[in-house]
Amino acid sequence: MEPESEWEAAGSSKPSQSADVHDHGTAFQQNHGVQIYYASRGARSPEELANTAHLLALDRTLRFREYRDPVSFGVHPAATWNQTQFPEYVRRDIDEDLYAVLQPGAFVLLVGDPTSGKSRTAFEAIKSKFPEYLAFRPEDGLEFAECVAFARSRDKVIWLDELDRFLSRPSISTSTLDEALRSGAVLIGTMRADQLDLLSPRHERGHSAEARALVRAARGVTARAHILYIDRQWSDDEVKRASRSKDPRVKDASRYASEYGIAEYLAAGPQLYREWQNAWSPGLHPRGAALVSAAVDLRRAGVREPISKQLLERLHAIYLDKRGGSRLRPESLLDAIHWALEPLHATSSLLIPVGEETYRSFEYLAEAHARDKKDPSLPQEVWDSAVDDFSLEVTHSVGHRAEKAAKYDYASRAYERLASAGISEGSFHLGYISAKRDDLEEAEFWYRKAISQGSLLAKNNLGLVLSRSGREDEASYWFLEAAQEGDGHAMRNLGNYFLVHDQLDEAKELFLSFAQKDSPVAKTVLGRLCIHQDDYRKAEEWLRQAIDEGDNDDAWFFLGVAQEENGDLEAASSSYRQAIRAGNAEAANNLAGVLNQLGEPEEAESLYRERLAQADDKYAAFNLAALLAKNGRANEAEELYRKAIAMGSEYAKNNLALLLEKADRDEEADALFREAAADGDVRAMANLSTRCRKSRDPREALSWINQALASGKPEYYIEMGMVQEALMEPNKAMLWYRRAMDAGQYRGATALGFLYERQGKIKAATRIYAKAAQNGEGHALYHLGQLCLRKRDYEKARTYLVEANKKGEPVSHMLAYLALRDGDPARARELMDSVSYDLTPAYEMVRNMINYDEESTGRRTT
């Protein structure tokens, strides 16, 4: 039997049917060629149309802006994401023309293939241009007449999706259509291109007078419309816009735009996926579903080549047997293939024919299957076939997929096949897998083989493996080899090598030569070298050049470092933000640190927490713990320090020990200090020295501070001086304090001044304190103020103490004493109430003086 067409051939011998027969739910009346749509209820009489009670339902229509879901306007639903079935709208090339003709009193008809995006384009245009208009959505010509008769206001949109429904009985009349347009209504409709083609006079020959009259009436309706055509295949500009979408469904669809229309892909994908899943039911299409499953899993394994019918026949049995085999009452193989190949929309089907009995699965299915996390593992037979039965190009892709799925045996098999064929990528990836497993010797073997096969990337990676093996000089040779061939990663690694080994002059000469070849990475490294030499102006010049040439993430980051080191915190925060936008996630730690310095601890905390949520970042955990500890949130800080320790932070043990020490948990603190010192943390060694010195064990203190000094850091000279004082060696202490001063550690000057002061050498002490104060030491100002108070030089004392107070020194009780002397007990009380440091005899003395003043004067200050 031949299939019936929508139009009958001329001279057909089929008996005609009465046009009055209503077959509810049937979409076609076959004696007339034009598509006939029957509403689910019978026709209404003119008397019913005049019934006001019946028309009151129309009064509940909404304004267009109140409609949130375009699916209810005939838009095909896509896969659900963010709780919506409709994806982000992508501007179409036709939008400009549509907006131009879409005016009050106009009828616009969008024509195109199914799933070309007609309804969505119309919906977005109306919602954008006429959001306050009432939206009417009639089902047939009679309801259209109701809308026109009832709502005579100008501000209305009448939505005629699938216009062919309105062109057969009960159809739209041209007189009612004209009345709607005269009222200023906006009419917008959609129609499939094949249905519009059926209205051509060419198709009238051989039909009855009744059928020809119906077609002519339909042409009269469409003749009043501005017809705009919308293509199923998207233009290059449309695809570019789609690829930039924030909606992953649209971005995914844009990858297949050359084969399917994007709207078709979005609409067909979910429907095909449902049909595939439903087909497993007994008596439906279980064998077809098994064939599709085999094709989908080969795609998931990385196979992008067409799959032969024979291979699908062999593999599909695995899936069919797993689901129940013959108990599912599977259809014949021929029926299964026909079902899987049947198009849903223009070109979309579960299996796509590619050549002579070769197929592949519709692309959407594999990704939807992965999202649903159904049967995440692939059968062994699929992996075996993917590795062995396809071209070397496919084998490369299969290796990647197997590696991503942690199927390293299959990945290695795939890469070994490539390596044996002399393809460097195979050897390279075998080296990468070996390095990931910490088998550095095997990684070195494969990377060297990849280099011999012509791989550039392997040179940098070989350098990394040699560096991890402690062979840093050999590593630098391979970094240099790769850098000279333009490998940016190798340049960064070579720059790190020079910085760590303090070979700045050699590095500068080499990277200047790289920079002359227009390498932005080389300019970033030159900027880093300048930071290392404290030349922040030159660093900024190099880094801005690197940014202009495209090295955004690293260059913005180190520009922030240069600005922060130079004290320009506002500029540094801006640069760190730019680095984050460019993809440098680690810059969040630096930005948070700067914001904390700028007095914005809340945003700093938020950034640290956001970074921790994104990755197990030990630096973020450590820095957040330090921030919380500083703000008195000790319990939270302790928890985060412990988390940072578990992540491998080198410094968290020492900081947690300090936190526990402050909470008088001395045994726990001491144990952590010793653990940190055993791990090589010189700060913990210095802190152990301080603990031993304060507990009157200067000999053990000396052993710890000697270990700390082996690091060569001058900040530990001061502690050594204090240990020498505890050992009753004041001359040696003076020597260490002077060494600290010479190294720019002016806390050493304060300690030296205090030693002179205790020896009664007040002039020498004053001179040393003054030098320290000139270099920003607040505690030296404290001592100068105290000395002036003893000499009763109150004005000088006030000057020093006010400056010391600005630097956070505990001098409020001294300033309160001066306020009392000035006869201002209220100010004295205010200063004492602001004190946050521990009680001291001097504090108590001033407090008593204030209380005495209040009792004697009878005044109460606030």
From TrEMBL:
InterPro entries: P-loop_NTPase (IPR027417), Sel1-like (IPR006597), Sel1_AlgK (IPR050767), TPR-4 (IPR011717), TPR-like_helical_dom_sf (IPR011990), TPR_rpt (IPR019734). Pfam families: TPR_10, TPR_16, TPR_4. Residues 1-23 are annotated as: Disordered. Coiled coil: none annotated. Signal peptide: none annotated. This is Tetratricopeptide repeat protein. It comes from Actinacidiphila acidipaludis.
